[in-house]
């Protein structure tokens, strides 16, 4: 899970590459081409005044570079044809709520043409009407796209009937249901929609709707494709998470190109503390490199992508906890456990209801992009709610090897050594929880309206079962036949039984004034 960096936004048409030894070499070239130059040839490039530069060159050893991922060479060009092939199989989900349609249109303009656009809106009714009008105009030249509102009554009924009832809730003052509010819930709706309506899409990506630089969106989508192409473990599921080059802020009239957002600084730090605690508890030693490390740098990555099979297999969290919970879920399911199989099975009973056992290996690719990330300015309370949600993912859902609640389940006969080891592991988990509470207490502010809740403990995220539990055939037919807000544009393989038209806002018979 090392950090990969984008070196060039456009590396040309991409000379076909082949693997030679442990490095990628342009096809038709010889790996020894540069070896014909000896040290004296390099010395001639520098004058006597450039002694420091010669020292820098001689001291640099690619094998010492911690950013090099095992199985991936230090530098590699992904052929454009390969990127286009992956992008042509990708759906990009854009969750939105109240963003200016012009800003959303800028985000859409940065999504490569081969990708399917999926706009999932939780805006108020009239705003969604404007968003759909914008989308239809944008897609007028045969651009494929889907749009749906999170209050769609048919989608809520389909989730409720075909396997994911936890995702819906009763509308206040009514007898019908709607999908719960929240970013995570909107993303789950998008995943289900793509899997049911466009099953040929093998990859699903997520891009926030408030990004104000379309060129950054274009880079993000190509970075997703590059991450899938660079997976050094063929046959494994893949998750690609982006770390921005910078997240600029205006301070004292000048732009400060800070590298991390305020929420990311907090969430990354505590995810790494979690990983370090798991390394201490790991009897196999396979996590030793993670101890006291800063391996995780994308804990709050709103811009991320994964193989569709992985998206369907993961439990997902509500709201802004969804991205940090990815790491918590994967660590819980895939990291070595310090308990034997029988104890682990007992420990997970009740604690991880809905989890899918035996998740196949997952490769996480973290990529640092080149474009600065400009987006809508958020206030301090919003930032606090985001990192508090991330801390809640850790605090309330520690992996089984650190979770003290598992001691409530009677353990099978085991050795004294096992009991001692498990007790130490649980103590590490309790210490991590205590440290989180101390952090909350130290960082509350007097004007923070939610300080009482946050200081006591971080909010507990709602955890949903994997989307794979949904009967996709039933979901597709119900949404297709009874939808109120679904739009399918330029999808010849999928037709609605009746076309949607831009119509006045509905009244309350469908809940929270679904607009179309």
UniProtKB/TrEMBL annotation:
GO MF annotation list: mannosyl-3-phosphoglycerate synthase activity
Amino acid composition bias (Low complexity), ranges on this chain: 405-424
One GO cellular component, as annotated: cytoplasm
Chain residue ranges for the region called Disordered: 15-73, 402-424
InterPro entries in UniProt: Nucleotide-diphossugar_trans, Osmo_MPG_synth
GO biological process, one term: mannosylglycerate biosynthetic process
UniProt feature, compositional bias: Acidic residues: 31-68
Top-level taxon of the source organism: Eukaryota
UniProt-recorded name of the protein: Mannosyl-3-phosphoglycerate synthase
